[in-house]
Amino acid sequence: MHDNPEALHHKPQRWLKPAALVGVGVATLIVAVGAFSRVTANQDLKAWTAQESIPTVDVIRPSTESAAQNFVLPGQIQANYDAVIHARVPGYLKKWYVDIGARVKAGQLLAEIDTPELDQQLAQARADLTTAEANQKLSALTSSRWSNLLKQDAVSHQEADEKAGDLQAKTALVQAAKANVDRLMALESFKRIVAPFDGVVTARNTDIGALINVAAANDPGLFTVADVHRLRIYVNVPQDDSAAISPGSPAAFTVPEYPGRTFQAKLVSSSDAVGAQSGAVLVELQTDNADGLLKPGDYAQVQFPVPPASGIVEVPASAVMFRHKGMAVAVVGPDSHVGIKYVTVQRDLGTTVELAGGLGPNDRVVDNPPDSITQGQLVRVSGASSAAADREG
Predict the structure, then answer these.
(1) Is 341 part of any domain?
(2) Who contacts 95 (Cβ-Cβ below 8 Å, separation ≥6)?
(3) pTM
């Protein structure tokens, strides 16, 4: 019987070592492949993240087809002539012949005033004139007699001169009395209220029997007559727009009572001064009103056509940014990097603005730029807006 069992003297198998080495290699390969996959995935993620962080923007081309634009301002229509007719003599209104809306001619009788006090003053003045003329005749006879007596040395020169002087004084009294009669007769003519020119009666502020008190406080006048065959339109033009219009410039206007209808006018004069309170220039336009459709006092919306200015480009208002240095727009260069250009706004048209400098017609302008957009930032231009901008360019 042997001391050691047979199992202790069994030799190891030769294939175990190579198998172990292969296992170790496979495990190492698996670990390496996994590490490589993780590195590659991490790099792809970083690249994807960086790509996604590039903002996508829409671009447009500035428009250079700045057709004539209209700026609309409120205006006040007034009559060519507008006269408030007051009484010149006191009394009572005897009768009126026209009412509001009546078309009248120059010199047409509008009303009559009963003036009993003035009539009595005229009668007294005529009596005074008769008395003065009688005294003058007597003084003339006396002066003539004394002049003949002086030739005969029957009276002194002093006495003859006194009679001649009395005649001159009486003659002056006649002239004064006649002037007073003429004055009162002129006032008598004001008993007849007549139209000063062809026009329409726009107000009647009296009635039969009304007391006429001359020069009374807050006197509204008896009638108001307006010449409406031609009308004036007054408009306050803001200082910014005042250089675009001048005398002779055409304009169009509308009034609320004729919706959809446009009337034509022409600018005839300007105050050539900016109002201290309004900051605007007062201009006057005129328009024919032969058909009488328009009325004095009308409110009008006046449209002034403004010719296009050279060097002006137009962009949407949404493309303009407010920066600390002023108004700016973002443009995209050929390398897809952003450039910030500061611009001067010539005119704000609401949805669009006209820019007078800082932008060229071939620039690709970012529409609705984000607030975070900066100089040199890389952006991605959307395909649709890029194609549209190319077509516009």
Answers:
(1) yes
(2) 111, 112, 208
(3) 0.59
Comparing CA positions, the residue from 167, 183, 173 lying closest to residue 89 is 183
CATH number of the domain to which 339 belongs: 2.40.420.20
Question: By the 8 A CB rule, do 53 and 379 touch?
Answer: no
Interatomic CA distance for residues 249 and 251, integer angstroms: 7
262-320 residue pLDDT tens: 999 999 999 888 888 888 999 999 999 988 899 999 999 999 887 666 667 888 888 88
Tell me if 325 is assigned to some domain. yes
Instruction: Report which secondary-structure segment, H or E, holds 383.
Output: helix 383-392
Structural contact between residues 81 and 197, judged by C-beta atoms closer than 8 angstroms: yes
Q: Number of folded domains in the chain?
A: 1
- For residues 343 and 320, the answer to whether their CB atoms sit within 8 Å is yes
**C-alpha distances in Å from residue 30, one per residue of 17, 33, 42, 99, 159:** 20, 5, 18, 112, 162
Residue 280: inside a domain, yes or no? no
Domain presence at residue 265: no
Of the candidates 224, 223, 227, 245, which has an alpha carbon nearest to the alpha carbon of residue 236? 245
Place of tokens 């002779």: 248
Quote the domain boundaries for residue 329: 56-67+310-392
- CA nearest 326: which of 338, 349, 344? 344
